[in-house]
Fold each of these.
Amino acid sequence: MSNSIRYGSQHDTPRARFAAAVLLAAFLVSWALPSSTQAQPARSEVMTSQTSAIEFYASNYGEFGVNVATGGAGFFYPRGSHNQYMFGSGLWFGAIKNVNSVPTKLFFLTYNPNSGASWATPGERSDYVSYAPLYNSNDYDLKTGANIKPGTPPYRMQSWPLWLVNGGIKPAPLSPGIFVADTALRKVGALPKSLPAFMPGVQEQMMARFNDADMQQYELRDTAQRVGYPLGLQIQQNIYSWNIGRFQNVVLLQYDIINSSRDTLHDCVVAQASDPDIGNNSNDHVRYYEEAPELRSAYAWTDPEEKKYAALVMTLIEAPTTNDDGFIDNRNRMKYRVEGRIGTFPHWTVEMDPTTLSQRYDFMTMPDFTVDDRASDIRALLASTKFSMKPGDTAHYAMAYIVLDSIPEYGRALYGGEPHRTLAKLPTRSAQLEATVGALLDAYYLKGFDEPSAVPSVWENANGIRIASMPNPARDATVLAFALPQGGDASIRLTDALGRTVMERSLGHLEAGSYRETIDLSALPAGFYMAAVNSGGAVSAMRLIVTK
């Protein structure tokens, strides 16, 4: 082992110990890989994405964005550039469970940013010793669900696991298909009106199932059962990515978390823990996007480096909705699009890392939106509000990572070299963030990813003015988001297909920066319109579709 990761050396940092641990894990996994005489293959699996502009690593046990084989970062943009944006991430779940009649704070994770550990086990709680692969839609026939990847070993020749049955329609983002555990039933006609379920409009879909049943995977090990484990979690994860349109720089992670135990879990919280490492890992910043709480977003950026890096946005797409009694009510899932909010967004350095079960639970549940722009090696947690789960309940959680080149900080003194006193005059909003997140939310909840309007071309850009609208097509209203390269008198105008002005609004003098304006469309007939932004005589316009 090299001196750089030798335990006890001057390089003995949590990250170095993690690198040593994952290198050892990679060796053990490779040692356990199936030979021609082994009936039981290795169960842990890591796969690299093949399609989107973001190159990322995923596993069948909940770790995302980490390259286990090298002990290094596993999230790069653009593909093939080796420009890293994240060292790793994974699901965190906290709950209060009655253990011997005592309410006890418990916690489960699929990624520990210090040790690299995942407590999850691939597969089903009822059968957690069998092989459970990480499925990739690129390996399957979209009509039959059959594995078509050349050279696939026999133990991987399973059909696609998600199916439409009993006359189900094509999957919507809120329901990606029904998991069929019996591999013999994964064929057309084996179940009533069954067809394989692939997410329409998604260029690459990865699917895995894992659970918390094998407590030897926990860092607690032999003490886990004594303190009240397992919680009884069965988790299904879908990862969606695109290679065209606005979403080519987006990766969407969707989780179904099932309480398969006989216990009621109280005051639960679910979150994605992330370790953003943009270029060098010691000079990153992170901030909650408080300007638009309804977008449930935060982002990380780096101090100037030799290479030019963009920003890493973290967005909470969905979390559990509840009844008045605090228990999950999945009949209200659509309400989360507008009413949902982040429960907490703590960000911290390794010195602040919570260690005990109680500390970790409190860390996830205490509201924290502190603005702290100090450069450091930083971690962040995008958490839901509290909910309770009865036996059999399913908690739905989805979040997205987005790489954007436009955030307010890129116009501040940090990059422009301007005096600190000018910060108050500079923009605090990001039109690019708001337009991209808005389009993603529309696609997830309303249109689906196969609708052309859900994956529009990149921003219209003329005379340096960037412009976009969300949603588009729109029915009653749309938000026109735009970014001005310099200050000036500004206005917006809406014209119909014959060039007639149907709406005009003066915005007065605007400084350079990002803005958004809501346009009322309720009185307009259906049709095609042009929305234009004029600033200082420069004009940028885009087509807007109004439906009724």
Amino acid sequence: MTLQCDRSDRFFRRCGRIGRFFRRTVFAALVSLLAAGLLGAAEQAPPPLEIHTGWQYSWAPAPESGAVSSPDWRTIRDPVNPPGREGRTELWLRVRLPEIPCPDPALLIDRRGVLLAFETWLDDRMIYHFGMTDEAGGWTFPGVTSHLIALPPDFAGSTLKLHVFSDYSNIGLRGRMSIGRAEDLIRDVMRRDADGIVIGLLIIFFGIFDLFIALEQPEKGSRAPFFGIYALCVGLYTINLTTVKDLVFHAPMFWFTVYFIALILMPVGIVGFVWQTFRPERGSLAHRLWQAHIGYALVCLVFYLAALWDWIPRPVAYFPIHLLRFVFILEMVYLLGIVANQAFRRGNVEARIYIAGLAPVAVFGAYDLLVALGPILSDRSFVQWGLFCFVFSLGMIRRRRHLDIRNRLVTYAHELERRSEEKEKLMKDLHDGIGGLATSIFFLAETAKSYSSEAKLKRNLAAISELSTESLGEIRTFMHSLDDQDRNWSALIAELRHHGSNLIEAHGLEYELDAAVDQRAPNLSSPLYLNLFRIHKEALTNIIKHARAGRVRVTLEVEARRLTLCIRDDGIGFKQGGRREGGTSNMAARAAEMGGTLEITSEQGACVRLELPLPQK
């Protein structure tokens, strides 16, 4: 147990150091983000020109040269998913480029890219292609990425055509297309994606930190790192939405695979987190959903790999991920119901933190929806900030749980230490009490063996009988002090009254006990139980031997923070000088051991008064 607590202390100290490093990292990242925003606002360079009007499309096959002589060109507002597809997988898009002077011209198609493979033609010249054709003339899956396409100096006024192939449910230009100087395009991308990159890295750091805690925590396997899984997936998903990642590391299939894995594991993380935090019962619906998502994620991964190796048609592989999105929306509504019930009906603070973190996601998601529908004119998305707020709220919940575990471990360590001290005291009391009586019985029995006189033998046997009875009483009291159910103030009062009546009244004296216990009084520990009983017994024995009293009155007052025990007799007091030799030093030692004081006075008899503080709950 001590080793376990030491490991827990080292673990939480290490977490504290990592937490301090994490706070400094977050602060530095936010300062960097602010600085990037200020620098972006200070830049006076003209923004690149976005091409979002004047698009035409055609489903008819174009000539091999790519000339625009096809008669079936139709105007479209947005160059994605034009009408009349009817299962077609090839689409032609065209637009006339503006006549603007531009040194080092380039064309940028942002992070959402073109779905899926395509060729870029400028008038009759192919200047760029993405995705390869196989031997049969079909297209292989190239992934989804951003594209920075260099333009010739004489691009102005030319016709740009995109020959797009997609067997996905969407086809066409899904991203933004901008034209300008290559350096200005890259600067604009850095400005736009600065917050997404920083937020994505911070969320990834959240996830790695939680996974580290899960690996280092003392109770291996006690808590699965669902928050770490979810945060890591959200961070990778956020970075995957940026264009910077493609300019820094152009690997379309790698980034698409990262996006796919993050997408299928996000439900595993968030469903597991809600189950673990708010519905931890195994067999509950949240637990079953989490188990189902693990299996479903494996199914999606198998379909994805099979499609990459052309074992199954790609449209078949797309179906599980489409279904996952729909099911995940329904599950989020169900999970929100669970959390709302905890927050508003049961007053769960962690559930309220969860809802507060989810609110920005809903607000910024609604904002993006209004931008897409047209009522709001904007080219910015703030959903990454909503995701950051949500992940941060989950991190706060996770931190509260870790602090709760830490506090419980510290309390448990203190309890172990207290129990160890109690054990030592109980063993000492057992040795001094029952051990002493057993030793006396042994010596009396050994002495009786040598007696030839029947009278002496009877005296020894009577003494042995008396000591045996006293030993049984000691054992009974000791067992009561160990039993949590029997060890309470009511049981102690009953034991004192029983023992006092039997001991005092057997010698012809009157015994009276008055007790008052405050309901706020702390629980009664084993050493306190035994020490109070021993002091009471020692005081009564002294009264019988020395006081020449006729009446004994005992009062016990147990308050929230203090205990007072008073044992008073109507005897002769200390006048004959023999009273203080009757075990008062033992009573004083027991009182000092408990942190209290013992006072013996002699006025119209004698009074033994014990006062001691009580440990708080």
Amino acid sequence: MRGYVYSKIRQGLKKTSFAFTRREYLFMIVMGGIAGAVGGFGAIGFRKLILAVAQLGWGNVTGMEGKDLLSMALVAPFWLKILIPSLGGLLVGIIVFFFAQEAKGHGVPEVMEAVALKDGRMRTRVVFAKAFASAICIGSGGSVGREGPIVQIGSAISSALGRWVKMSGGRLRILVACGPAAGIAATFNAPMAGALFSLEIILSELAALRFIPIVVSSVIATALSRHYLGNYPAFEIPPYDLLHHSELLLYLILGVLAGVVAFIFIRLLYGMEDFFERWNLPEFVKPAIGGSIIGCIGIFFPQVFGVGYESITQALHGEIFGVMLLGILVAKILATSITIGSGSSGGIFAPSLFMGAFLGGAFGQIVHVLFPSTTAAPGAYALVGMGAVVAGTTRAPITAMIIIFEMTANYRIILPLMFACTIGLVVSARLSRESIYTLKLVRRGVNIHGGKELNVLKRLKVAQVMVHEIELVSPSATLNELFTRMMASSHNHFFVLGNDNRICGHISLATLRPILKDYETVRDVIIASDLMDHNVAVVKAEESLDMVMQLFGKFDLREIPVTDKGQLVGTIRRSDVIEAYNREIFKLDMSSSFATSLRLQQKMHTQRVSLGGGFQILEANVADEFVGKSLEDLRLRERFGATVLTIKREPEAGDEGDSYIHPEASTVIQRGDTLILFGLQRDFARFPTG
């Protein structure tokens, strides 16, 4: 019945949504423009801050004020190449550890998580922590890029702006996506790439209401960047071209190599994170150790310091030769992985461009020696390699193609660029399902591709669902007292309070049933302490519901007491969690009803997100054997240990969008339904799916 009511309300809202469309567009365009202006100035200011740090750390010592980081590092003594990155790492560690943990790492996954799980809400302090941490890291020689920090800074500013004007969750998510568009556009002088980056990576969907403000934000940020920093491509290159169609075979091979390099980079980066995580040292010390290692690498390969645009330009112009290209490539992969893995702050977009340029440059020199008359100059392969590695690491091939085109203002290389980017993406995806961004989230148990159904439990907190009443009994309470109170209560569990005012056990109605036949004999003999189950769990009010569901599944509970600052404040019930889940799914569905989305991710038959402790949330199409049967008939909990959170049903003729059915014992499964289930991974291994 509830699912039917939700469906009818949804249909009514969709019929009235068009009345708000014009006003909605205008409001979001204005807000997108403001976000673009703020994001553009933020990107410009961040670049100035990096330059100031670099001049303070390297320029004053080497006597080369006004030069780029590579030029200063080349003339620096070896001890300075170790000292400055070490000091920079220590400062970054202190900022991250004491001010904002979100400033750690490359930034984009945090924005993706905020958009997917937190309605676009980000702490304002992230703006300052990320700006200073990343500027110090890059300026002192950390082997990272400035794009990830700019994305996170722009998003945090947009989030603060949206919360200031009290925007709703759906609008706020769009506004937060305007920040990355502005940052990327201003950084690379690439408005199309900035917009596509947000749509392809941050939102993973296309819709008019989302597309328009993001484009406006990107255009305004680019205009500001061109005014203050000049209107010229990020890299000045010769006019490369495809000399012969047979060259496409060579670009195919380059795409395969780029996919492999992207996979190696992804795995090594998170391998380094795990490596440093195992060190029993204060967290703020680890970036300093990482900086020392980077300094040692920089003694032999100073090209790894900083963003590396100067070195990329050299590779594009063919100014670095032979084995040196491959040596710098390996050094850069290692240096970037250590920088981020040790806990420093910076992006991976520019390092991906760097790796692609040096991989392509080395490959181009080899094939140009072998086939001099039918191949372009090595710089052409370096250019295509940049896009191919970016496509492989980020899994955003359209952004990779467009950003290379816009950064170089060279359309003549577009055919091999499209070909190699596609091949690099396919190879990398075959080797690793997750991108360099989504893998960080998956390791936390967040499945961006799974959509809202799989992630809702992580964003809901116990305090939002709990009830403040809780049934407490003394250990000496008699069976007569217990039975009388349970008959008058809506709670399934009574919690036994010990002498120290701590819960020491619980009694369920199911525990009392077997002894009711002897009730008259034992009513005044048996007491609560004789009946209670000592397997009791307690949750905190600020914990997420995915943790609560794990406890429900582990101890087979229906109710858990809740504490806040050590005080018992209420209880949370399994039925209330499922009800809240469906209510939140309904709200999320309504927030997206003003625009029809085109998902860029292909829908899978089964999707999973791991929650830890062996538990999973599974989204699965129903098997034929389930069709026409009620949930009571299927007995999914008894057979598979599965709790049905909600049922996603395909739209009927004339309707738009899926509907969500609250699971009840009498609910009958229909063909085409999708079940959202909670349970243990080992049980789901034998769960039948359609």
